[in-house]
Each structure stands twice: as C-alpha cells, then as structure tokens.
Amino acid sequence: MAARIDPLHEQGTHHWIITLDGVGSRSGTCTPEPGETRYDWYLKIRAHVLDREGLSDGPTPVTLDFGIQLHSLVAA
User: Fold this and answer.
1) Could you tell me which residues are beta bridge partners of residue 68?
2) pLDDT, tens digit, for every residue of 5-60?
3) Which helix (H) or strand (E) covers residue 10, if one does?
4) Are 4 and 10 in contact (CB under 8 A)?
5) For residues 39-60, b (16+ Cβ closer than 10 Å) or e, as one string?
6) Is residue 44 within 8 Å of 37, Cβ to Cβ?
7) Sign (positive/negative) of CA torsion 47, 48, 51, 55?
8) Are 49 and 20 in contact (CB under 8 A)?
9) Domain limits of the chain?
C-alpha cells in the first residue's frame, strides 16, 4: 500500500519531523493504518522526503533525527 503522507491542505492524525544530513529538516502529517509501526513510517517518510528532494536514486543521507506523534489537534 502506498504511504499516505497528507498534502499541506489536509490534516493527518500524526505529525512527523525528520532531519537528514545534507538535506535539513522536513515535517508534515500522516495517517498511519492500523498495525503499521513507527519504523514502517520512518521508512515511508524518509523515502517521501528523498523523492521530493530528487535524491531517491543516490546514496541515502544519514538520519540525524526522526519523530512521529499523535497530532495534538486530533481528539483521542
């Protein structure tokens, strides 16, 4: 299944931030499916950022920081 990393105009259930060496920090929202792990989403988000930066075919930059958490605006 393709990752659902929400466009800027949509609000996902979770907020994420990733910092890659040489790329910098990027953030956004996503809506994980039941059963998906933080690691699943780390891989999807890293691939998404590298693709948007045009770096998906080269060597993978080192991940300096990664976080994903329930968006505080979403009722639990």
Assistant:
1) 16
2) 655 557 888 899 999 999 999 998 888 889 999 999 999 999 999 999 999 888 88
3) none
4) no
5) eebbebbbebbbeeeeeeeeee
6) no
7) negative
8) yes
9) 5-70
